[in-house]
Specification:
75 residues; alpha+beta; two-stranded antiparallel ribbon; 2 strands
Length: 75
């Protein structure tokens, strides 16, 4: 949501995703900021997530960008 509220992605997202992240021109960023009338988010999951800093190395991909190990069992 940062591009539509703050004109840019959060630094952490930029550093994790790098050049795979869509870049906005200055004009596009200004057009995006505040461009919503209503925003709603429903997110449901049955997985536990644990921080996994070791995923920072190696091939970058969508599946490791969050830097978490997911499981159905609580540790």
């Amino acid at each position: 949501m940062d591009p539509i509220t703050n004109e840019d992605y959060p630094h952490s997202m930029d550093s994790f995703v790098g050049n795979r992240l869509l870049k906005f021109s200055e004009e596009e960023s200004k057009m995006l900021k505040g461009s919503f009338d209503f925003l709603s988010l429903n997110y449901y999951t049955t997985l536990y997530a644990a921080y996994a800093p070791q995923l920072n190395s190696g091939n970058k991909s969508y599946s490791i960008d969050p830097h978490v190990n997911q499981s159905r069992k609580h540790n």
